[in-house]
Design a protein that fits this description.
The chain is built from 1 helix and 11 strands; from the N terminus they run ββαβββββββββ. It is of the alpha+beta class. Strands 3-4-5-6-7-8-9-11 form an 8-stranded antiparallel barrel. It has a two-stranded antiparallel ribbon with strand order 1-2. The protein is elongated and about 90 Å long. The mean pLDDT is about 85.
Length: about 170
């Protein structure tokens, strides 16, 4: 029996071809929609920042720099450096530095948590292999924060710093 579409009649064969074209187009749209989230999810997330931190809102406490990339497959690549010397000298040391490669990370749109291994240096007291953990919140002066914990060669939690000069970004 013919099917009436608008002002024209379609036979069974024409109706079948029309349905095939419709479902082929529908399949194309579904496939395109399915690829959009997969493409978006494949983008890496990057936490990066640099500047000077403060614990009192006025005086420099550290100079820091980092860039951490977390890829869609969960792998991580990055570096971290925190220096307390000169105008941001850590009490009791002429120099204190923690630097190294980032080995794990978790990120949200506003913050990141990452850990790594590298070196701890205390100026005239020498260097030692070290592991560290860092928590950061995105933002510029007075908003962004950085908190460093030295895990080895001994456990030491440094105070949370606000960004005094510089920026921390998560994107």
């Amino acid at each position: 029996m013919p099917l009436e579409v608008g002002n024209s009649l379609l036979s069974g064969g024409e109706r079948g071809e029309s349905m095939k074209r419709f479902f082929a187009a529908l399949a194309g749209v579904v496939a395109a929609c399915a690829l959009v989230p997969a493409t978006a999810a494949a983008d890496p997330t990057v936490a990066s920042g640099g500047g000077r931190g403060t614990v009192d809102g006025t005086h420099p406490f550290s100079q820091f720099g980092f860039s951490v990339t977390r890829f869609a497959d969960g792998s991580v690549r990055g570096n971290f450096n925190c220096l307390m010397a000169g105008s941001s000298q850590f009490p009791g040391f002429t120099l204190m530095a923690v630097r190294g490669q980032v080995t794990s990370a978790a990120m949200t749109t506003s913050g990141a948590s990452f850990s790594g291994a590298g070196m701890f240096q205390t100026g005239n007291q020498g260097k030692a292999p070290a592991t560290f953990h860092v928590e950061v919140m995105a933002g510029g002066p007075g908003i962004g924060t950085l908190q460093l914990t030295l895990l080895t060669p001994f456990g030491f939690v440094l105070p949370t710093e606000e960004v005094l000069h510089g920026q921390i970004s998560i994107h």
